[in-house]
Amino acid sequence: MKVSISVPGRFHAFNLVMQLQNGKISTELYTSYPAFKVREYGIHAASVHSILSKELLYRFHQKIYGYNHDSLFINNWFDWMVSMRVNPDRDLFVIWSGFGLKTMRRIRKSNPKAVLIIERGSTHIGFQQEILRHAYRRFPELRPALPSHGIIDKELKEYEEADYISVPTDFVKKTFVDKKIPEDKLLVTPYGVDLSSFTPGKSSRETSKIEILFTGHFCVRKGAGTFLDIMDLLKEDSGFHFTIVGNLESGLKERLRPFIEKGILNYRDHVPQAQLNEIYQSADIFLFPSYEEGMAMVLLQAMACGLAVIASPNSGAAMAIKHGENGYLAEPESREDILQILLGLRADKNLLNLIGHRARQSVESGFGWEDYGNKIINKYRDLIHE
Questions:
Q1: 102 near 120, Cβ under 8 Å?
Q2: Superfamily of domain 2-192+368-383, CATH level 4
Q3: Is residue 321 within 8 Å of residue 311, measured between CB atoms?
């Protein structure tokens, strides 16, 4: 089996490539990352095709328009560059959604027997637009980070022309089925976590306060509004402290300032992944009330570190969490439910530790990257009848 992967950055594609290479599968990678950075992840240099111009365009665009603003031009640029370089004589192609229509059409024209898979790391783009419009209603001062009409149109064509669409959770699958995508076109494979890099700390930390953590891009899409509400509800309760680690959506810094000044919130900007394990180990609870995700890998990281996770089903958490057993599920805007869970865990430290212990056991039993690799390789082989 010969596989090609096209990704405008890194995402979980590098983990996918490593698993394919570990399985002795011939793999080519087209990415906007420079080749020397890709090699740091253990990927064979000979298999990497770097399209650095996309990364430069994207970072310049970020400085002007901000982190959340997409660009159809940049999407099409990367797509066109890959289409000009891709070797169509492969068995199976995995192409990141929004960045592959030209590439798919060129491959289809040259190699009609090739299996074309669109990799979608979020919900159906139509569902995504609808739920984010709702989420931004309480933030009139912010510019909504919504997919543009051009990108939506392009993705819908990709969904139609691909042989399959690869998604990470049943929740994401449902958003596609609800949008009339045939169920047999959808491949569901949950992501993984590096179980050696993310590990539990002390079983009981020496502090009287419960530390509540959020990591990743703190934005409206990932439930910033609910997180702010929970801090506001607990601002007079000395038994809780909050930490946010990651980039902020433009405009949210002022919303955090009162909590920082009162000493109930510690904010840190983005940190290297090598430092994340220590940050997780310094916390008790991971709160992630996201409106929509594919499967947030920070959830698996937090579980691997033995934290009690409270997350929305929309984050993909339901693939790994059984409510009340190894974590908790709460709808994105269910502030009172989240509050009661937090108060219950503070009142019962033994339960808090037990939930964290079970969380670690859960990811050890099916959510390592090797587990992901074995599942996806078997699916690819079935698709090409190998």
A1: no
A2: Glycogen Phosphorylase B; (3.40.50.2000)
A3: yes
CATH architecture of structural domain 210-364: 3-Layer(aba) Sandwich (3.40)
Extract the tokens encoding 143: 């510019």
Q: Are 233 and 301 in contact (CB under 8 A)?
A: no
Q: What is the dihedral of CA 48, 382, 376, 331, to 10 degrees?
A: 130
- Name the residue ranges covered by the structural domains of the chain: 2-192+368-383, 210-364
Q: Indicate if 210-364 has the same CATH topology as 2-192+368-383.
A: yes
- pLDDT tens digits, 141-181: 998 999 999 999 999 999 999 999 999 999 999 999 999 99
Phi, psi of 260 (to 5 degrees): -65, -45
Above 70 in pLDDT, residue 376?
yes
* Count helices and strands in the chain by DSSP H and E runs: 15, 13
Can you tell me the distance from the alpha carbon of 60 to that of 223, in angstroms, rounded to the nearest whole number?
Answer: 27
- Residues 161/116, Cβ–Cβ less than 8 Å: yes
Distance separating alpha carbons of residues 303 and 326, to the nearest angstrom: 9
Tokens 């890998």 belong to residue: 297
Residues 368, 372: Cα–Cα separation, whole Å: 7
